[in-house]
Amino acid sequence: MDKIFDYLKDIFDKNGFSLYMIGSTSRDYLLNREILDYDFVSDATPSDIKKFLDNLDLTFEKYGTIKYKYKDKKIDIVTLRKEEEYIDFRHPNKITFIKDINIDYKRRDFTINAIYIDKNYKIIDPSNGLLDLKNRHLKFIKDPLTSIKEDPLRILRAYRFIKEYNLTIDENVLKILKDNECLLKNVKTQKIEEENRKLKEAIKRCITN
């Protein structure tokens, strides 16, 4: 059990909404690792969440993303959504808020990033990410080249996950990553620096564990 998730999921539940662990949060929870980054998704929209949570960072509200601080922890809460064609190597042309996990997961990058854990700690795993996590295998949900052209930062994320979780990756996929590293020129320097910071933290974590 996780105290922060328990605290927030109860608030969402009392207000008629669901909250799920996702991404690194569900991954680290399943691997019994310390949770450093809290990532949640919900069927509540930012407009809904504003009615029952205070002190929110709403900078990316239009994308369905809000940031919330609880004690000393920074938490990202993203509304379940469907995305259409990407226009700037980062953001989709259109976002539609939805309530169906079986649609939301299709917009994600890797299968291990699409493991949802609900309020009862039940695992919802539409892309078989849990199996890939157990087998230590990094796999894209959709075509790798399509995925990295949508968001080239996924190249660096792939390298980080391979290092942090000691994962394997298919040789043909690794070649696609390396052959398209030039696409990173379309990513903001700030985003690359943030990803590199996370990589350094991952390496440090591997050394200390």
Description of the molecule:
The protein has 209 residues and is α+β, with helices and mostly antiparallel strands. It folds into two domains: 135 residues, Beta Polymerase, domain 2 (2-Layer Sandwich), CATH 3.30.460; 70 residues, Orthogonal Bundle (Hydrophobic Seed Protein), CATH 1.10.110. The protein contains nine helices and nine strands. The protein has a five-stranded mixed β-sheet. Strand 8 and strand 9 form a beta hairpin. Helix 7 packs parallel to helix 9. It starts with a helix and ends with a helix. The model has no long low-confidence stretch (mean pLDDT 91).
In the CATH hierarchy, the third-tier topology of the largest domain is known as Beta Polymerase, domain 2
In oligomeric terms, what are we looking at? single chain
Summed up, the helix count is 9
The CATH class of the largest domain is identified as Alpha Beta
Instruction: Quickly give the structural class.
Output: alpha+beta
Number of domains: 2
Shape: globular
Give the H and E element order: HEHEHEEEEEHEEHHHHH
Tally of extended strands? 9
Share of helix among residues? 25-40%
| Strand order, sheet with most strands | 1-2-5-4-3
Write the CATH architecture name of the largest domain: 2-Layer Sandwich
Q: State the CATH superfamily name of the largest domain.
A: Beta Polymerase, domain 2
The end-to-end span amounts to 21 Å
Mean pLDDT: 91
Main sheet characteristics:
5 strands, mixed
Q: What value does the Rg take, in angstroms?
A: 17 Å
